[in-house]
Write a structure and sequence with these properties.
The structure holds two protein chains of two kinds. By secondary structure, chain A is an all-beta fold. Chain A has no helices and twelve strands. Chain A is globular, with a radius of gyration of 14 Å. Helix content of chain B is about 0%, strand content about 50%. Classes of the chains: A mainly beta, B mainly beta. At the A-B interface, strand 6, strand 10 and strand 11 of A face strand 5, strand 9 and strand 10 of B.
């Protein structure tokens, strides 16, 4: 069965600090996809990154970086030099194919990040 | 660039009433997904459509139904509304229905049931 665990419910940091959001997943499939989304106070879901299960290469995009480790089933997200505008809820999500030909996406419970000035 | 459009953005209904939420996907996207996000909760998948046919079904109550029309827009119909239906309803669209495809989310419709 699929499961996504974001153990950190809330994190509070001071501006310019680095912060890592943890994501641990469970799946029986060998082919699956991992995503991170940001949900700012305005409510919309903003796509940040996706990773397929065969690509463990870490990625950096500006102040954002992601560490995917299949050995520990983790897909952690680090924000470097955090800013107040990073304050949001961050969701990790897992998608895997179903027998119907479609796929199912499940989200973690989310981590609420507060960045204080 | 065009994004996913959802209407209305806010909706207030009474218990036992019906509600219809509309979703207009990004042009040329053939797949639509509906999610329900309760207060302080993560988004829960309800149902999806690919090429106007139901593709997958998640935790959608029997009181809810949905369809995708010939122009690819989708409507989520909710009947006999309950207080617990109060939530943010997201629509997302993608090109193709593979698990790899990036889902583009709309701004959501906030439904309040009184």
């Amino acid at each position: 069965a699929q499961k996504v665990t974001q153990a950190q419910t809330e994190i509070s940091v001071v501006e310019k600090e680095d912060v890592t959001l943890d994501c641990v997943y469970e799946t029986r499939d060998t082919t699956y996809y991992l995503f991170w989304y940001k949900q700012p106070p305005s409510g919309e879901l903003v796509f940040l990154i996706r990773r397929n299960s065969f690509d463990e290469q870490n990625e950096i995009s500006g102040r954002y970086s992601w560490n995917f480790q299949k050995s520990t089933s983790s897909f952690n997200f680090t924000i470097t030099a955090s800013q107040v505008v990073d304050s949001a809820v961050y969701f990790c999500a897992l998608s895997e194919a179903r027998e119907t030909g479609g796929f199912k996406t499940i989200f973690g419970a989310g981590t609420r990040l507060f960045v204080k000035a | 660039a065009a994004g996913v459009i959802q209407s209305p953005r806010h909706l207030i209904k009474e218990k036992r009433e019906t509600a219809t939420l509309k979703c207009y996907p990004i042009p040329r996207h053939d797949t639509v997904y509906w999610y329900q996000q309760g207060p302080g909760q993560d988004p829960q998948f309800l149902i999806s459509f690919y090429e106007k046919m139901q593709s997958d079904k998640g935790s959608i109550p029997d009181r809810f139904s949905a369809q995708q029309f010939s122009d690819y827009h989708s409507e989520l119909n909710m009947s006999s509304l309950e207080l617990g239906d109060s939530a943010l309803y997201f629509c997302a669209s993608s090109s193709g229905r593979g698990a790899w495809n990036e889902q583009f989310f709309g701004p959501g419709t906030r439904l309040t049931v009184l």
